[in-house]
Every structure is written in structure tokens, then in C-alpha cells.
Prior knowledge:
Layout: H1 6-26, H2 42-70
Helix pairs in contact: 1-2
Amino acid sequence: MNLDLRIPxxxxxxxxxxxxxxxxxxxxNRPGFYDSSxxxxxxxxxxxxxxxxGLTMFLLGRRGQKLQASLPPEPVDESTPPRGH
Length: 85
């Protein structure tokens, strides 16, 4: 099984980043909503950070899968007994 964990992690962070960014955009013009964070729209900025991180993880995972698919298969050594069940 060749599951690269960067792909589902990247999708998850990208989705959370999109949701958080959308919330930050939707609440951008509310008066007094971001007073406790010195007027900085923290939801928008951290949503963009999570989106960029998730996209990077996803793209690196896809690149790793393509690289692994292009490599020749490893030779099987028939002289050693099989391990496991």
C-alpha cells in the first residue's frame, strides 16, 4: 500500500484553511469583531496560512507519488525466507 500521508493531510489543511478564510472574509466588515486582536483579521490570515501549508503538503505528496511510480521495482531476493504470517 503506497499511501503518502501528505496527500490526505494536505487536503484536510486546505479545506480548513478555505473555511477559515471564508469566515474571515465574511466577518471582515463587522464593527468591533476584531477589537480583541488589535483590529487584525486573524481568521483570514491564519486561513491563508493553513491553505498554503495544505496546498504545499498536497503537492509534495503528489510529486512523491509520481517519483515513486517512475522508479523501477525493487528486485526480490529469493534466497531469504518470507517473513510475517
